[in-house]
Amino acid sequence: IAAWNQTAAETLGLPTLEGRLTSELLADQKSIDIMRSQGEQRRQGLSTEFEINVLHFPERRPVPVKVSAMPVIADTGEFEGTFAIIRSLELERRIEAFEDTIHTAQGAAGIFQAVCEQIRPLLNFDFGAFSIYSKNGQHSRMMLSYDPQRQIESHKRWYPMCGALAAWSQRHEVQVVDIADFVRQFSEFQDDPTLKRFQSAGFVKSLRIPMVRGGRVVATFSCSSLDHNAFSEQEMRIVKALPIAKAFLMALHSLENDELLFRINLIRDMFICRTPEQIADVAAKKIAEQYGWESVEIYTIEEAGRQIRLLSQSASSPDYAVE
Asked: In this structure, what DSSP letter does residue 76 have?
């Protein structure tokens, strides 16, 4: 290689390409064979387009590229070399693989898992969460989490949001959030036990991707890292190009369909009950199963005696039992 531009060098992860042999830049035998064949076509005076895999040297990973190559002919008519324009196909292939995986995923949990598995090699995050917002924008609820190391445990279902936090939550852009700065900015989180555990576990940065529908943020996907250098500009460019928000809007639609079906089935199951106690038992059990709450209690109000009486309870542990 006698001349190159910076983009070509960056594609290979090298500071310079000067003096490099083309063969040592190739990632596999198939690409080597294609280049040999293409070299013969250049000597015959032919220009062609073809695809090969080159090496990204720092990580020794293959990068698919499209090459537009043409011969360089001297004034004497002799073949002197090849002029080639290289375009990386890596991002296009990532998008194709991402969309194929999402379209075969089943349900909200399947989509969430598929997204995390697709982007984790790009971002190397340690925790991910998909959260929804209430219709009035005053509460958020984490629906799904990706926590391979099981570092975070949260029992709080709905988080109140008001004032500045509610306004901040409606920001439409993808953001990298410094967690310590976030806690300082929103004082209501300074004593929150879940966020304290989150910081104690060593999480320092979070990437927030909003899902916008009808002009308002209805859900977010966030992934958090223990690394102070996480979420670089290059990683952000890749993430912004992937249809992550589209995937999670599909997940949200699936959740909403599941919720509607749950309500219909709950009404059906309650309808066949004969007594208020049976209705309460069915409702408490089904609601606890649906939302994963540790305890669901249903009370009846006795106005004459100015008392409330426990009608039914579904508890995940005796510790939550109401006497």
From this structure: T
**How far apart are the two ends of the chain, measured CA to CA in Å?**
82
> Distance from CA of residue 202 to its chain's centroid?
20
Contact 217, 140 (CB under 8 A): no
3-state secondary structure of 316: coil
φ/ψ of residue 13, rounded to 5: 70, 30
Coil/strand/helix, residue 233? helix
What's the CA angle centered on 57, arms 223 and 123, to 5 degrees?
0
- How much is the pLDDT for 193? 78
In single-letter form, the type of residue at position 39 comes to: G
Q: Does residue 317 register a pLDDT over 80?
A: yes
pTM (two decimals): 0.74
The string over 165-188, giving b where at least 16 C-beta atoms fall within 10 Å of a residue's C-beta and e elsewhere, is bbeebeeeebbebebeebbeebee
d(CA 255, CA 251): 6
Q: Where are the alpha helices (DSSP H) in the chain?
A: 6-12, 29-43, 90-104, 107-123, 163-169, 179-185, 193-200, 233-241, 244-271, 276-291
Compute CA 14 distance to the chain's CA centroid, rounded to the nearest angstrom.
Answer: 29
Could you tell me if 77 and 43 are in contact, meaning their C-beta atoms sit under 8 angstroms apart?
no
Show the CA angle centred on residue 149, arms to residues 143 and 150, nearest 5°.
50
CB-based contacts of 57, cutoff 8 Å, min separation 6: 12, 13, 14
| 3-state SS record for 156-215 | CCCEECCHHHHHHHCCCCCEEEEHHHHHHHCHHHCCCHHHHHHHHCCCCEEEEEEEEECC
Residue 154 pLDDT more than 70?
no
Is 259's pLDDT higher than 80? Answer: yes
pLDDT at 196: 82
| Count of CA atoms in the C-beta half-sphere (13 A) of 91 | 13
